[in-house]
């Protein structure tokens, strides 16, 4: 039996802003969030002795992986969070959640402002998993980001794994274990 653990990076210190933001201010926050430090904790590894670790190469995931896993870690750009792009450029100030709602709707409707699109993300995960699962069967920890984890879960289920639902809020620093 092989186990795969999906782990969202530790909470970032930058957090989510309050107030109203233009699209340019939103993108400035995204840069700050990407560069933010993390609140290091003990990782809940699900009681598994992970043999291999793959991680997004973004700073918050990299630092989380190094804290959670003692061995060699393979950092992959293909495990990065889905890039946020404003649906429209405007000086109109909106709450963060409204910006995110517009971005999500634009992404689901395949608006050209959103790249990569859903199909590209699904294919990216499929290709990444093809590489990861070429190795002999062993327990694999994957450290990444909440948005991408939903797609990773779906791909694991397609490949015959069973595991938990992730829910609307994926906990930081917790491993969700899938088995096959």
Task: Describe the 3D structure.
A five-stranded mixed sheet has the order 4-3-6-1-7, with helices on both faces. It has a two-stranded antiparallel sheet with strand order 2-5. β3 (about 50-55), α2 and β4 form a beta-alpha-beta unit. α4 (about 120-130) packs across α5 (about 145-160). The model has no long low-confidence stretch (mean pLDDT about 90). The chain has five helices and seven strands, in the order ββαβαββααβαβ. The longest helix is centred in the C-terminal third of the chain and has 15 residues, at about 120-130. It is an alpha/beta fold. About 35% of the residues lie in helices and about 15% in strands.
Quick overview:
The protein has helices at residues 23-35, 59-68, 96-108, 118-132, 146-158, and strands spanning 3-8, 20-21, 52-56, 73-76, 94-95, 140-144, 175-179.
List keywords for this structure.
180 residues, alpha/beta, five-stranded mixed β-sheet, two-stranded antiparallel ribbon, 5 helices, globular
What's the tally of helices?
5
Beta-strand content bin: 15-25%
Count all strands and give the number: 7
The general outline is globular
Helix content: 25-40%
User: Structural class, from helix and strand content?
Assistant: alpha/beta
Distance between the termini: 6 Å
The largest sheet, given as strand count, sense and whether it forms a barrel, is: 5 strands, mixed
- The Cα radius of gyration reads 17 Å
Strand and helix map with partners:
Layout: E1 3-8, E2 20-21, H1 23-35, E3 52-56, H2 59-68, E4 73-76, E5 94-95, H3 96-108, H4 118-132, E6 140-144, H5 146-158, E7 175-179
Parallel strand pairs: 1-6, 3-4, 3-6
Antiparallel strand pairs: 1-7, 2-5
Helix pairs in contact: 4-5
């Amino acid at each position: 039996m092989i186990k795969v653990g999906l782990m969202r990076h530790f909470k970032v210190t930058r957090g989510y802003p309050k107030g109203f933001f233009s699209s340019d201010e939103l993108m400035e926050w995204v840069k700050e969030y990407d560069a933010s430090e993390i609140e290091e904790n003990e990782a809940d590894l699900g009681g598994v002795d992970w043999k291999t670790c793959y991680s997004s190469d973004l700073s918050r995931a990299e630092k989380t992986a190094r804290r959670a896993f003692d061995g060699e870690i393979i950092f992959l750009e293909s495990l990065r969070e889905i890039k946020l792009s404003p649906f429209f450029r405007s000086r109109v100030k909106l709450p963060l959640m409204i910006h995110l709602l517009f971005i999500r709707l634009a992404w689901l409707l395949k608006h050209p402002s959103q790249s990569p699109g859903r199909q590209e993300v699904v294919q990216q995960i499929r290709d990444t998993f093809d590489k990861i699962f070429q190795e002999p069967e062993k327990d694999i920890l994957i450290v990444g980001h909440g948005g991408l984890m939903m797609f990773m879960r779906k791909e694991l289920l397609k490949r015959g794994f069973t595991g938990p639902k992730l829910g609307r809020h994926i906990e930081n620093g917790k491993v969700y274990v899938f088995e096959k």
